[in-house]
# Entry
Amino acid sequence: MNNYLSQKYFIFMIPCNHPRYESLMLRSRIEEGVKNGIVHPTGLIAHGRGEAFDYLIGEKTQKFAENAIKAGVAYLKIAENPVISVNGNTAILSAEEIVKLAEKIKAKIEVNLFHRSEKRIKKIISFLEEKGGKNILGIEGDARIKGLSHDRAICSYDGIYSGDVILVPLEDGDRCEALKKMGKVVITVDLNPLSRTARNADVTIVDNVVRAMPALIKQFEKIKNPEEIIKKWNNEKNLQIALDFICSRLRKFYRNYNLNLL
Ligand code: PTJ
# Structure
């Protein structure tokens, strides 16, 4: 069976009432993304790590994520030059929402890759354009994020380099730190509340990007008091709430299954 048929066969094999339907469909999208060159092969591993943490938070947008989404929107609302940074995984999972959010907040979209190649940047730009994206940055690579030695330092002068508030879903810790050192406000979406990115960002949305992006769009109209929200925002405290939530869920699992592991 060739690749195309096996992919179709896989989709056909997942009935809508399968208890893991949504999760399996996301896997299928990531797999398709690898096949068509949008997602880097290691994006499969990153997705798997994300899945594990999503399982632990109950695969739902929890209160701590809702609060972070509000804080993220508040920063995006007061931004003068907001930028949405897109990698392979985010593009394949949330292209339409990225385009919609960028329109709402008047943000630039920049493709910025850890495993950078011109070919993949062009593919991701075309993919976002198919969903309605315009003037997408990334290919010019005419500036560098200071203090980074790998290719993710290569960025666009008109985008990430000169932006003030940067939304970076599925970030790697190094770049988050480097962007902070450049004085930028960093908002991230990362299912892992323990990651360096999560701990270094100004706002960490501990949620799946497929739920967080539509929620950011929805909140945009609702938030009328961004300054007040920012004043009260405490990212560290919110991350602790996320971790406490995961721990208490694990304790419940332990009691329910009576595993006697301790
Ligand atoms: O497309 P490229 O070349 O820029 O590469 C992108 C990846 C994601 C492969 C690269 O940035 C990478 O290796 O990332 P890391 O260091 O594995 O970090 C990814 C983080 O995103 C991990 O903490 C995961 O838990 C988290 N994550 C994975 N899938 C999701 C997610 N967070 C939110 N939503 C997801 N769907």
Notes: Residues 40, 42-43, 46-47, 49-50, 53, 87-89, 93, 113-115, 170, 172, 189-192, 195, 208-209 surround PTJ (CB under 6 Å).
